[in-house]
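Write out the 3D structure for:
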Amino acid sequence: MKKRKPQLKPRVRHAFLEALQASLWGRPILPVLFDGLTREDWEEIFVLSFHQTVEGHIAEAVGTLPDDLLPPHNLMLKWAVRLQRIEDRDQRMRNVVAQLGRLFQENGVRSVLQKGHGVSLYYEKPHIRHGGDIDWYFPTKMGYLQANRLVDDPGRSYQVTSRHSAGYVFEGIEIEHHRKLVQLRNPLITPYIDSLVADLQKENTTFEIQGENIEIPAPLLNIIQVNAHILKHQVTYGIGLRQLCDSARLYHCCRGSIQGEELRQIYGRLGILKWTHSFHKVLVELLDLNREDLPFEIEGEPDVEWMKEYILRTGNFGFYDPENPDIEKPGGRVNRGERLLANFRNFYPLAPVETICFPFVHLYNKVLS
């Protein structure tokens, strides 16, 4: 059977991105882009917001439209319910971060809150960001092992997920412990990454969360680890807009805290500079990131239409690709080999060594796990 290749209607795409951008940057929404939307259009926008895990941002922005441009009542109710759940989960996650942070500190374990929940602190309204799990990084092997022992309880479904990670559930929230902060697959740059992280984390900062001082990565280090995480997933099945929003907010908020040329050289040493130029253009064109917020100019103005289309089509971590639907398990992954090969061809020119290393590192970790 021939694969379906549904495309977003231009008016749906424009309205969805306008709502996301308005919420992301705290600016008024443009009502004209929502005039004439049908019930079917609004349903597509709602589903798209769910697949991209940005429903909190879309709900918040859409709620500011004039009454005569609002979506159907039943969809507004669904968005309201989702927004409330996101806010409730954010509060629960904050409580868990504070509890675990206090547990680690009381036992002399240095911990760094990384990725999602730590990056949400750079949003104007962090409580509407859809939270995933909570990720902790431990700078020393001894600290990592001690932290694992502190939470190793059968009731928490604790398990080692790889040589460098462990996971469990705490108060209903998924938690991961990591020995690596910048998670790229190229083993040749591991010594450089280790020295880079050791140097940059001297500038780490702290935020107060529920009365506890929680350490998060320094701005430059935070940007590197977030973008490395995005590339790691793009090379495989994909990444959604939620993670792109994290990168855009970091660039925007840390503009005066980082040296652009220093970051450019780091990307070059990591072997991902060419990909970075394409990724930066995607941030500008999809999320309306101000080019002045970028750490350095985009070189060559690369063609990124294919990357933008893939992100919008496949959703969060590539789980919602309509060209590869999993009827038995919606949100599952089928045609894995075909999809991985297609992404290999797309990303090899942009990050060749990182792309080549994926299957070997994946197999290596699978054998050792």
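The chain has a mean pLDDT of 89.
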